[in-house]
Amino acid sequence: MRFDIISIFPEMFEIIHAGGVVGRALEKHHFALQTWNPRAYTTDNRKTVDDRAYGGGPGMVMMAEPLEKTLTAIKQDQSKVGPVVLLSPHGRRFDQQMAINLLQHEQITLVCGRYEAVDQRFIERNVDLEISLGDFVLSGGEIPAMAMIDAMVRLIPGVLGDKDSAQQDSFMDGLLDCPHYTRPEIYENSVVPSVLLGGNHAIIEGWRREQSLLATQLRRPDLIEAARKKGLLSSKDELFLKSIQA
Ligand code: 9WO
């Protein structure tokens, strides 16, 4: 997977190199990343990328031309180009399934807007997909772009260890995670559930599944319904859910 990122703040993406799972994956060439600054594709001395909004109102709008010229440069540089994605609150809500689907492409271009907005003509002419991380407004698309990259890179085979990727599978059930504990056994008078100390793996797995179902039913009942529709709940799961209805 290759990510080409259009941003007037390319330095923000240096943090990806800093370490952690994603930094290591980059070092090991599990994916590639290149930033492209629209200021490099301006023609005026001031390298202008924004201008006032037609119709008035506060805030500046990102101009179509520097963004489109940046895209042209990416297309000239890359033999294969996948979808052009704009990070925007208007977009389709990002989730784990979208991360999986987008990973099927060899290349993705992420467009990070700044100022108040992006000229609609750039969006209509060039953007294949608008993606939102949630119903909030930020000052730019860079942080959502990095969040998307993080979510996708974790799914690339070999990036996580075997133990961690098994963990991914439990999220693939569409349920929330069970509670986790580590040493000490007693912390400020609060104990670790005894089932986890017993060493019976079948019983532990059964407890974890129930805890996942319980947390999901309480906090995100919509995910229970979705898992049910996908056939991800066993009859044992259904019996447990019935037992906690009270
Ligand atoms: C801003 C905006 C505000 C209200 C309704 C729709 C909106 N669209 C945009 C927009 O596309 N803004 C550009 C990108 C330029 C200004 C900063 N941008 C942005 C992206 N702010 N917030 C996001 C974002 C992206 C993904 N998930 C959540 C927020």
Report the CATH architecture of the largest domain: 3-Layer(aba) Sandwich
Question: Care to count the β-strands?
Answer: 10
Ligands, ions, cofactors: ligand 9WO
Low-confidence region ranges: none
Radius of gyration: 23 Å
**Taking strands numbered 1, 2, ... along the chain, how are they ordered across the largest sheet?**
2-1-6-5-8
- Summed up, the domain count is 2
**Helix and strand run:** EHEEEHEHEEHEHHEEHHH
What form results from the Cα inertia axes?
elongated
User: Helical proportion?
Assistant: 25-40%
Q: What is the helix tally? A: 9
Largest sheet: 5 strands, parallel
Whole-number mean pLDDT: 97
- What structural class should be given to the helix and strand makeup? alpha/beta
Task: Explain this structure.
The chain has 246 residues and is α/β, with parallel strands linked by helices. It folds into 2 domains: 152 residues, 3-Layer(aba) Sandwich (Alpha/beta knot); 76 residues, Trp Operon Repressor, Chain A, CATH 1.10.1270. The chain is 39% helix and 17% strand. It contains 9 helices and 10 strands. The strands form 3 sheets. It has a 5-stranded parallel sheet with strand order 2-1-6-5-8. α2 packs parallel to α4. The chain is elongated, with a radius of gyration of 23 Å. The structure holds ligand 9WO. Ligand 9WO binds next to β5 and β7.
